């Protein structure tokens, strides 16, 4: 069963094609009101640990190692991963993030993880 997962910057306008909108950052995005976020869920606990997030610092050179370390954190966080899988059973889920880098962020890494681990 293929999952319908999208990744989108939270500052982009919500769309009817987003499906369920899940913020996957530990920290609330700067300058965004909760009303304008149009979230289904804020899943803080699926975000990388503060230690990992600070180490990564959105440095593309650290991307491969960041993904490896984040996968290890996700492997140990089965309950929260299962929450996302439950949402995916209901249809499309858009993983939302606040970072500027659209290619190297935790939502991209998380989407890849979910696609490689279709069931928790």
From TrEMBL:
Domain of life: Bacteria
PANTHER family given in the database record: CYTOPLASMIC PROTEIN, CYTOPLASMIC PROTEIN-RELATED
Name of the protein: DUF488 domain-containing protein
Organism ancestry: Bacteria, Pseudomonadati, Pseudomonadota, Alphaproteobacteria, Hyphomicrobiales
Organism: Mesorhizobium helmanticense
């Amino acid at each position: 069963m293929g999952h319908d997962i999208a990744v989108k910057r939270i500052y982009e306008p919500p769309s009817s094609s987003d499906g369920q909108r899940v913020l996957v950052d530990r920290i609330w995005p700067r300058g965004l009101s909760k009303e304008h976020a149009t979230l289904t869920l804020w899943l803080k606990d699926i975000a990388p640990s503060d230690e990992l997030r600070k180490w990564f610092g959105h440095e593309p050179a650290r991307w491969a190692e960041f993904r490896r370390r984040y996968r290890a954190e996700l492997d140990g966080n089965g309950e929260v991963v299962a929450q996302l899988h439950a949402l995916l059973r209901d249809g499309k889920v858009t993983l939302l993030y606040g970072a500027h880098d659209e290619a190297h962020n935790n939502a991209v890494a998380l989407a890849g993880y979910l696609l490689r681990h279709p069931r928790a």
